[in-house]
Amino acid sequence: MIADVKKNAEQKMVKSLESLKTDLGKVRTGRAHTGILDHVMVDYYGNPTAINQVSNITLMDARTIAVQPWEGKMVGAVEKAIRDADLGLNPSSQGNLIRVPMPALTEERRRDLIKLVKTEGENAKVAMRNVRRDANAQLKDLLKDKAISEDDERRAQEDIQKLTDKYIAEIDKALVAKEADLMAV
Q1: Nearest to 65 by CA among 29, 91, 99
Q2: For residues 139 and 147, what is the distance between their CA atoms, to the nearest angstrom?
Q3: Rounded Cα–Cα distance for residues 107 and 71 (Å)
Q4: What's the CA gap between 1 and 126, in Å, rounded?
Q5: If DSSP codes are grouped into helix, strand and coil, which group holds residue 108?
Q6: In angstroms, rounded to a whole number, what is the distance separating the alpha carbons of residues 143 and 14?
Q7: pLDDT, tens only, 111-124
Q8: Which superkingdom, per the lineage (predicted)?
Q9: Which of 45, 74, 92, 99 is deepest in the core (most CB within 10 A)?
């Protein structure tokens, strides 16, 4: 039973770490990347819809993303959604094609991206702590049901704390690497 609780907690921590790494991969350093627009939602006839479900997204060159809505009348809505997504992007439409130039990273923009990265890291740490809290609650329930002894519960809580510390250190490593990547000119 204790092994199940530990295994479950570790699986959740691994998923949280992978999610953080995926999110950090979307924070780009001045190069165009179609993944930047993944979270942009377009008002598609009253329903919020992912941008990649209403348009074709490609790279025009290293610094420009091309977005081509499948319906001509969606150009304005897609352009507005990109502008309102708080990504610091300023799209411009030419007929049915929307060009999204990636701004060169200024020192201020780099600082903003680092703040964003730190926020993502803090959210991942909170997720780790929530997993730890849930695992400890499960252990307390096992103790209350007299399925395990107090010593077993205490040892298991220490093991879960070690797991938490290990994954929080992994988060810190990923954040330091991403900050160094962002500050490299």
Answers
A1: 99
A2: 9
A3: 38
A4: 25
A5: helix
A6: 26
A7: 888 888 898 899 99
A8: Bacteria
A9: 74
The answer for residues whose C-beta is within 8 angstroms of residue 131's C-beta and 6 or more apart is: 9, 12, 13, 16, 164
CA atoms within 13 A on the CB side of 138: 17
What pTM, to 2 d.p., does this model score?
Answer: 0.66
Helices 150-183, 107-144: inter-axial angle, 10-degree rounding = 170
CA distance 152 to 156: 6
Q: What is the pLDDT of residues 123-139, one digit of tens each?
A: 999 999 999 999 999 99
Supply φ then ψ for residue 166, to 5 degrees: -60, -45
Q: Residue 103 gets which letter from DSSP? A: P
